[in-house]
Every structure is written in structure tokens, then in C-alpha cells.
Amino acid sequence: MPPTPRPSSSDPSMTRPWTAPIQQRLADCSDYYLYAVQQLDTCVAALTVKALQDARKWIETALEDVSECEQGFRKRASEPQDVVSKKRDRNQANNATL
Q1: Which whole number is the average pLDDT over 37-56?
Q2: Considering the entire predicted model, what is its pTM?
């Protein structure tokens, strides 16, 4: 008996109601990790000039980013979430204070 062909990803029967929210959360996580890397780079720069309080703040913010990503997956996929815009607002506020 020949193998049953697998439906392609463009096949409407393969569409799942949770696909879009998961893809959005993955995109959000990508942004969060990019922010975290930028913050760790800023932390290293702060450490080179011995600005320990600033370095600590950037490390804490980077860790919050990773946590936000994980929390996004813990929430129900159907919940509306605009985490990236909240994150951008927080980063702008942090940048303004330093």
C-alpha cells in the first residue's frame, strides 16, 4: 500500500486556530531576546566604566525580557496580547533614565 500523502502547510485543513497566536508569541519572543542582547551589551559597556548600578539595572531588565517571553506561552493562546508595544515603552523609559 503506498504511503498517504501528507497535506501541505497551505492546505486549509492544516490551519489550526492556535497557529496565529503561537506565531505571534514566537515573534514577540524574538523581539524580547533581541532586546535582552542589547541590554546585556549596554550592561557590558556600563561595567567597563564601573557603573555598577546601571549594569545591574540592565541585567535585571534583560532577565525580565526572558521572563516575559516565557509568560507569553503560559497564557492562553486566545488571550489578546500586545507585549511588544509594552516592552518598547518600557525600554524607552529605561533609556530615558540613563
Answers
A1: 94
A2: 0.58
